[in-house]
Amino acid sequence: xxxxxxxxxxxxxxxxxxxxxxxxxxxxxxxxxxxxxxxxxxxxxxxxxxxxxxxxxxxxxxxxxxxxxxxxxxxxxxxxxxxxxxxxxxxxxxxxxxxxxxxxxxxxxxxxxxxxxxxxxxxxxxxxx
Length: 129
Description:
Layout: E1 9-13, H1 16-30, E2 35-39, H2 66-75, H3 92-112, H4 116-123
Parallel strand pairs: 1-2
């Protein structure tokens, strides 16, 4: 087997979700051992891959969780046009149970946050006159 020098530089041609996700994964897995350059053109518009529908799969080095993808898409002014057909395989009761569980988790997380007044007094209170 031939000896190869380790990769020190990577150029990712094209931005968009795929390019930025590739760069994020490389940065997370390779850290400071590799120089990553992402090159994208201001003259090439968005292709819109995944706008019509798609599935979210969790894999090594994911930048976003499943629950964050909608916020990512909406933040980029990309609204889904439909939903994935896999949803049709979930009963209404399963969906209600899932959403109720999600609601409980969110409420528990929110209860741990300080109130607005507590946050202001702890982190950005005005100095005494």
